[in-house]
Amino acid sequence: MFKSMNRSRFFLLLLMVGLMIVTACAPDRDQVGDAPEIGEDGMPAKPDELVVWINDEDIAEDVHLEQFANYTEETGIEIKFERIALPDQLEELALAGPGGTGPDLFFQPQDRLGDAVVQGLAVPLTYTDEELANFTDAAIEAFTYEGDIYGAPVAIETYFAFYNKSLIDEAPETIEDVLTMSQDLREHDSDLYGFLVSPEFYYLYSFINGYGGYVFAEEDGVYDPSDIGLDNAGAIEGLEKYQEFITSGAIPRTVTVDVLDGLFSEGRVGMVVSGPWNMPIYGQALGDDLATAPLPQINGAVAPSFVGVKSWLVSYYSDNQAWAQDLAKFLTNDENSDYYYEVTGELPPRPEILDNINDPIYAGYTEQVEHGTPMPNIPQMSPVWDMDDAIELIVNGGEVEAVLTDIVQNIKDKIELQGQ
Amino acid sequence: MHPKTRSRLELAGIYTIFALMAVIIIYPLIWAIGMSLNQGTSLYSSTIIPENWSLTHYQWLFTDERSNYLLWYRNSMIVSGMSVLLSVTLTTFTAYAFSRYNFVGRKSGLYTFLILQMFPVLMAMVAIYILLNLIGLLDTLTGLVLVYVGGQIPFNAWLVKGYLDTIPRGLDEAAKIDGAGHFTVFIKIILPLAKPILAVVALFNFMQPLFDFILPSIILRSPQNYTLALGLYNFINDQFSNNFTRFAAGSMLIAIPVAVVYVFLQRFLITGLTAGGTKE
Amino acid sequence: MSVQGHLTIKTNVSKHNPTIAMVLSIIFAGFGQLYNKRYLKGIAFALFEILFLVTFGEFIGFGIWGITTLGEIAGLDHSVFLLVYGLLAIILIAFAAVFYFFNVKDAVKQAKAIKEGWIAPKLGESLRIFYDKTFPYLLTTPGFILLIFAVVFPLMFAISLAFTNYDLYNSPPRNLVDWVGFENFGRLFTVGLWRNTFVSVFSWTIIWTVVATTFQITLGLFLAVLVNDARVKFKKTIRTILILPWAVPAFVTILIFAAMFNDQFGAINSDIMMPLFNIEVPWLTDPVYTRVVLIFIQTWLGYPFIFALFSGVLQSISSDWYEAADMDGASRWQKFQHITLPHLLFATAPLLIIQYTTNFNNFNIIYLFNEGGPAVQGQNAGGTDILISWVYKLTFDTNNYSMAAAISLIIGLIVSIFAIFQFRKTAAFKEEGNL
Predict the structure, then answer these.
(1) How large is the ipTM?
(2) Which residues of C121-159 are buried (b: 16+ CB within 10 A; e: fewer)?
(3) Where do transmembrane segments lie in this chain (chain C) (predicted)?
């Protein structure tokens, strides 16, 4: 009995191995190169529907509903949209795309562009020079990767100064003035704060860059990830300047975005650094007391800020890439860009619109955009956010130079770990 | 010291400890309620009961057309309900087999799976995603329920098996002699006696889907399919602006019914869990 | 009739050959049974194999090709999907192999029996026997199948990833993923990033696991004993309040605590510490304090389960024990030490072990409370990062999935070895000896 059992096991094994060898063959590749037919207008046949991933925000839905309806009216193509938070879109796309439930068009800021391109999730767009002329150079550069343009730019985003006119008459001109203003205000009433900025690398890049620190060395739009300037003399000097605000008690150590928004809305802060996304929230809370200004001068010039551009990207997995691109261009044309600005208050990167904005509340925003530096769009950017740890250590009293040397080394190690 | 005085002092000490615990337990909860009544969106408020308190966030959850709260509530109830039904059935089947029958893998089967579950598999969510996509259950409540049910079996089957082991075998053997079949014994004899532990398993399986936001965030995509935990978590998972007060309001509305259920099932919870976890 | 039947069997005795049955059943499921004249079973088995091959044959072939090559044409083949299909194919093959094994075993066994003159029972009777024999399998199969897909399959995927080069630059659709053997494990020891930080993260993970879990068990025990005191009234109300933390979703509680412990704006400092002691404790900015708070929160979250568990056991300890101890004049402490405690621990040991292993990988609390922070100079993990949260962050920052899988695997091995060791110890303690 046992003997035959063992034998049968052996046969069974043989059979299974045999089965695997016989059946493990490559799939049929006939479908390769199944190019869609091109119509007379140079476009392939119209799909019934395009799927678009928009940001998971009420305001995004507000603005796009109308635009999508117009596109459907114009072309007859239905638009189905899904709300997916921006930071999650790439990871979701990497799974949903090949799974067949991905979008034709998705939405991303440029700092994730490198990730998208390196993985091959986005396809380049074709723009005529005429079309390109409608966008600011900075916006197009932000979405150019290794010579190809990957995005139809929707909005240009940066942070600037918001101030409360009931507490301060006008925004202080230089960062030194800001410190004095802060101390005056706090002496006057200890429940008040003069100036708050969230302790995050994103915002504090102004201090770093103002004195000559930089993320990656750049030449003609090409970044060199091996040259990191976040621990150079300028970066150190800038962050030491920032540290003064903490040590002098002008800025409490544990400010977070939520605390900052809460305090400013309650009317307890003279001036904060924040972005256009807070325009409606602050406006509702403070009414006419709200005003904006470019960032104060650091090292003799308006402090530079990170500029982010948000764009529509066409998915690699889209079956209708040509039409997806058509939709992307439609959504970023003059009319729709203008409408986008009206609803969201975010500035479209189109010179024509930018030049015609007269609303005083946008003064700070429009002016600051001109002083911005684009966030690098290469994949090596993601470890750079470790700089938040450096900021935290500095806020807690760490010695700036030592902290930066240390964290930048970590960033370099992580970039190495990313592989190539 | 007089023994009676000593006993009184002791008792006073015990009650003091309970009072202290009550404060530690209730303080954060009161604080969360206070937060949910705060008009703004901020997490931070200077007083525990805000000066300008209002029910706006509760109102928003129920009446705003953008709010999917009631839908999420319904989804969560469906997921939890289905998960309870399926889990209790499958888990008891499994546990009964492990408790009463001899078969291949009986000795170490449950322990093996308990240990396999100790491996951190955050990365492996991708695999579940692809599998559910393959069989068309992605972004469905059914898919979510199946994963929950599969994952809970080792621990709960082990609990139930422990409980069933305490039910004397003589009972089912007697019934078998009287001609009862396998299933009759199971349904007529074992199930009624196992009620307390089944209540525990039911409770666990009701709570787990209700409280978990990680798995749903992988499996569910459409907001109308979200469960409560996922929907609530998304209120506060925004990069630039969070809505803590709305989150608190939504959380309170789920915590209160759950707390009530716990109170009612307390008796079962304690007896069931004990016998289940204890008698090997 | 019966004589004739007897005669046919007699003639079969000499002819019937188990080896033929075996070979036939290997060639195709059910053929052996047909040879044994168990027609219904034979047809059922054969039908099963046909259905299986028709339904899954192509998928299995594709899957095996997928998992061996991980794709050949970048852009068209998606390595990760192929890996998953391959694993599913392997699971299907395993199911089939088990079925086939029983098929062959059954054919051989019955052929032997027939050779020795066994008379096959009638259909109804044989079905009953079959039902009797397979009943435990029938009971466990549905659960088992779900279990395989929900627990084993994801684990197989995570393990497989550790042996690939899946990272940002080797990502579909642009590129393919390849098998690289043990390369990731090798790199673990050579990349400087780990070496500097691993020891400190690992030691905090151990401290966290041991202290937080022990605290929650001790507090649960302490309160259970107090409530169980005969003199205490309103037991039900007290128990209800004590169980309350269990009834609030943990992620909600953790986030509320995070807000309360904010150094300057949280309620703890502004409502309690400042008015009463006039100090502002750096809860979220000093790693030591953050660790203390984390342990406190985990205790708060975790003790109700232990409390409920122990309350039940306490009620079940026979009063005879205590009466006997009273006769011997034992003190209260002695009674606790020699009767209560052993009873409690003996009864609940495996559950307590699971508490420890759960906390070892308790990603939620660490990440939701302060994202592993505050930052600590000189290491690339936060001051409260445990292994699992550190790996998560590294994956997130560097998109190096295969490396993360390799570390996860090592973490899993550490925990499971500890658990196996402890389970065995308690089993031996209970003199069951086998696991």
Answers:
(1) 0.88
(2) eeeeeeeeeeeeeebbeebbebbbebbbbbbbbbbbbbb
(3) 20-36, 43-68, 80-102, 137-163, 201-228, 240-261, 292-317, 338-358, 401-421
